[in-house]
Amino acid sequence: MSLDSATLIAAAGLVAGAFGGLLGLGGGVFLVPFLVLVLNVPMHQAIATSIVAVIATSSTGAAMNVERKIVNIRLGMLLEITTVAGAIAGGLTASMLPGPLLAKIFAAILVVIAVMMAAGDRLRTLAPAEPSLGNELLPGSYSDPATGAEVRYSVRNLRGTMAISLLAGNVSGLLGLGGGIFKVPAMHLISGVPMKAAAATSNFMIGVTAAAGAFIYFAEGHLNPHVASPAALGVMAGSFLGIKLGRRINAGMLTWIFILVLLFASLQLFLSSE
């Protein structure tokens, strides 16, 4: 691989890492379409690279978010139980599916999540009115730098979010997304966790989720170090930028950035798989 290609991959990783750190997604949702559409990297290699990038994003951003006390650590550890199980199953399944089919699955999932986020207020009304398991055990609070307000919340419907986390882990292992693309909406819409706390808690978890699937992709020979190394370096740098941007953006704007990026990536991936 040429120096120009490596520089381009690192630059793409920088952008992916910034969005990943900002939204708690790990960057895979942006990096995979770029590698496939711009550099013609095979889908399985792009997913393997994304998984490495997700680990880098989590390693970089988690410490910063924990220090700012935005992460709900106890909630994250509980959700990770089902997420890792799903990630292992997804990694095993991915090797059996062709690249174009994976791209279409990826694109369809992005649209579903974007619609869920756009309908957030309506979906939240479907959650139980009375708090269920986890409300008393998993309270959270943080100071929002963008508004200066102290945000307090309690987690509700923990069982529902854990079920979604199983699916998130499966998608992580299957498509290299880190699982945040499902866990952030689930925590926000089902469990009533504020958007910033949901993104930070997802960022805390995604590295462990991705590591569970990384070994499978490595064993199958899909991990190309010439692609993964510059991508991981770019993502690590971008993650710092994303975390800092998150301090200055209000929660409503963060949600709509999330939605628009998902729809764009979905369209590009679907067209590329035709």
Distance between the termini: 27 Å
- Our count of helices gives 11
Poorly predicted regions are 124-135
String of helices and strands: HHHHHHEEHHHHH
Main β-sheet description? 2 strands, antiparallel
Range of strand content: under 5%
- What value does the Rg take, in angstroms? 17 Å
Q: What is the helix content?
A: over 70%
Secondary structure category: mainly alpha
State the domain count: 1
- The whole-number mean of residue pLDDT values reads 76
Instruction: Enumerate the strands of the largest sheet in spatial order, edge to edge or round the barrel.
Output: 1-2
Number of β-strand runs: 2
Principal-axes geometry comes out as globular
Can you give keywords for this protein?
about 270 residues; mainly alpha; 11 helices; globular
